[in-house]
Amino acid sequence: EQLTAEATSIVQQLWRMRALQAKARQLETLLMTGQALVAKLESQELLDTLTRDTRRMMSARACALYLHDAARATVRFAAFDAPDAPPVPAGEQPAAACFASAAILTRKQVEFPDVRSPEFRSVADLPVEQTLCSALLTPLIVDREVLGALAVFTDQAHRFDNDEKRICATLASLGAVALQNARLYARVFQS
User: What SS3 state is found at 95?
Assistant: First the structure.
């Protein structure tokens, strides 16, 4: 009985240590991503970096970034990262009718358990890749303005846990601030 208790204690400590190591790696990656994003002054490079790093950090199949134009009430596909990435949908879509609209209009994270279901087939700005299954959309918000949405896709049914949602929200916040800074920088040099 004592041997069982000691073995259980050791296994629990080992599990805690591995969990702490994983959290330390996530924190280090978040810090490095934040530093990389802040250093980007060209918008497209910033968006590509954000989608690439988010996909890697979330161990996702794909990551997309949608930009919102509030004045025109449209959304366009701005960046996409996936192995063997298919072509992304081009052009602007009405904000109310696009895939990212749920996160953009509600200003909250939205999770979809299966984007392969029939109700998503007519969505024009959903990436055309048969392997995408679950999705988590997170709005990019700065000063109460929604700049867009970050979408993370898995290749199998997945329920995003609170840690994953927090990581994605943090990355979206870092990306939103960096994007706003890049836009302000561009305006200064245009004038």
Answer: helix
